[in-house]
Task: inverse folding
């Protein structure tokens, strides 16, 4: 029995500033969940704590009944910037991860694995090029391959499309969706793009505005899969969900903050 | 190409003007200063037979320069072998930085002339004392540049290292060193320049054969034209060293 990833009463303070307070969600295996909120609301902080890059002040993250407060190879992370090492080729960047996750494999086996994932994200032909020679979108694809080669249980995406132009963003959203449809790996995506969250997720966790950000609305995205971006605007259910998210972001997120202040 | 040729011509004009100033100065207000022509006449034998060894302190100019270069190479190697790891430690650890940075800032401006007697006391021989002085005076740019390089490693790379759970050794070899390399090389270039500055002082005080030692001996022998020969040699060799490091640095950045 695979248990959900649990975030329980997670609280993060920076000095006197309480960024996130009592944030709790459970993410069942195979779910695609998005954390959505205004910028600066602390959603990236939550993801970063799940990734083990920061430590919670109170509460925390539990995987399989064990509290995690350090990074682990069971969690592949893709950052907002591709964060590739510029002195290494695409392949070597992915190899760095492959050597960590599959130390028992032969170098040839590791390389095959890397090429497989570079192929999966559609950048095989750039394997021997340096990041600087490649477009942002391609670099981000390589970063996704680097996370996937770990064959992690969880994929943590921290606004991974934020720096891309809209056409490239669509392409990469489709890629992530396609990859997820294949293996149904648990994904946690941080974003401030409503359509992105609706298009990709099973569930959207809307956060209230910080300080003391917490779960404001936990919304199931009931749209059928596979999803089609081009007809989304004609789908009444899509428009209803979109309206609900916008209403929350426009009014309630602040209202929560006001209530707390009162 | 045409532009480079033009620049070269301009540089030659500059050299000619400085030479003219030298000639005029020696002919008018400074009669003790040998004129360019006299300098050449009296130095010809050292330049035309650059590898000749006629005596301990009477050798061709390239041979003298090679002694100095060899000494600089050893001192410089010592400087970067000590300075690079030191820079890494100071860059990586705030504790060490706070502990040692003030001391380094105090040690940094000390002249080689001040260190050399200490080296002589410590080692009782001129050669190790010279190396000690070169290393101690020239390592600071390496230390400081390496330190700044480590501190300038983007947080993104640290995050990658963390999420991939790289061991300390792999972190160092796969991320820290490659990320710091351009900074390190800028430090090496400055250090080499300093080492070359120090060598002359070290040789003057210890009287060892080399361009600096020769310069001081000829001063004592009142052969002033040879002083000028040494000065020119020191300048040209220093320039060549800097250019070489510059090329190495540029290659590194391109790679």
Result:
């Amino acid at each position: 029995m695979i248990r959900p990833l649990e975030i329980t009463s997670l609280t993060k303070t920076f000095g006197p500033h309480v960024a996130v307070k009592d944030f709790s969600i459970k993410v069942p295996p195979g779910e695609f969940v998005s954390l959505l909120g205004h910028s600066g609301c602390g959603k990236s902080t939550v993801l970063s704590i799940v990734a083990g890059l920061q430590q919670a002040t109170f509460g925390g993250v539990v995987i399989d009944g064990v509290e995690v407060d350090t990074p682990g190879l069971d969690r592949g992370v893709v950052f907002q910037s591709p964060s590739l090492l510029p002195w290494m080729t695409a392949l070597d960047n992915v190899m760095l991860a492959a050597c960590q996750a599959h130390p028992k494999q032969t170098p040839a086996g590791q390389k095959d694995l890397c090429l497989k994932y570079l192929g999966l994200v559609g950048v095989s032909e750039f394997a021997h090029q340096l990041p600087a020679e490649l477009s942002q979108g391609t670099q981000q694809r390589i970063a996704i391959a680097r996370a996937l080669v770990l064959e992690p249980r969880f994929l943590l995406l921290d606004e991974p499309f934020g720096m891309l132009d809209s056409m490239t963003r669509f392409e990469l959203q489709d890629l992530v969706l396609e990859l997820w449809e294949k293996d149904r790996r648990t994904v946690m995506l941080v974003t401030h793009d409503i359509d992105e969250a609706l298009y990709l997720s099973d569930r959207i966790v809307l956060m209230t505005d910080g300080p003391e950000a917490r779960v404001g609305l936990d919304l199931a995205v009931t749209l059928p899969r596979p999803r089609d971006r081009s007809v989304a605007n004609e789908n009444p259910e899509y428009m209803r969900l979109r309206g609900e998210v916008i209403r929350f972001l426009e009014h309630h997120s602040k209202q929560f903050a006001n209530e707390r202040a009162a | 190409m045409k532009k480079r040729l033009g620049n070269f011509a301009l540089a030659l004009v500059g050299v000619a003007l400085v030479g003219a100033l030298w000639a005029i100065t020696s002919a008018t207000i400074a009669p003790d200063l040998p004129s360019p022509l006299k300098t050449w006449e009296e130095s010809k034998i050292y330049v035309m037979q650059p590898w000749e060894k006629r005596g301990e302190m009477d050798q061709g100019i390239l041979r003298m320069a090679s002694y100095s270069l060899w000494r600089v190479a050893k001192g410089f190697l010592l400087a970067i072998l000590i300075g690079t790891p030191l820079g890494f430690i100071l860059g990586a650890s705030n504790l060490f930085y706070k502990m040692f940075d003030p001391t380094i800032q105090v040690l940094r401006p000390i002249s080689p002339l001040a260190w050399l007697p200490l080296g002589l006391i410590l080692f009782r021989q001129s050669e190790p004392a010279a190396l000690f002085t070169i290393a101690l005076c020239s390592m600071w740019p390496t230390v400081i540049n390496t330190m700044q390089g480590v501190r300038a490693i983007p947080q993104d790379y640290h995050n990658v290292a963390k999420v991939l759970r790289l061991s300390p050794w792999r972190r160092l070899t796969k991320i820290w060193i490659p990320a710091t390399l351009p900074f390190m090389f800028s430090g090496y270039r400055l250090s080499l320049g300093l080492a070359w500055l120090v060598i002359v002082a070290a040789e003057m005080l210890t009287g060892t054969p080399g361009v600096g030692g020769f310069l001081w001996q000829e001063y004592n022998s009142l052969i002033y034209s040879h002083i000028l020969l040494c000065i020119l040699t020191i300048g040209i060799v220093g320039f060549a060293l800097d250019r070489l490091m510059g090329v190495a640095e540029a290659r590194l950045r391109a790679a």
Summary: The interface with chain A takes residues 156-157, 159-160, 162-166, 174-175, 178-179, 255 of chain B (CB under 8 Å).
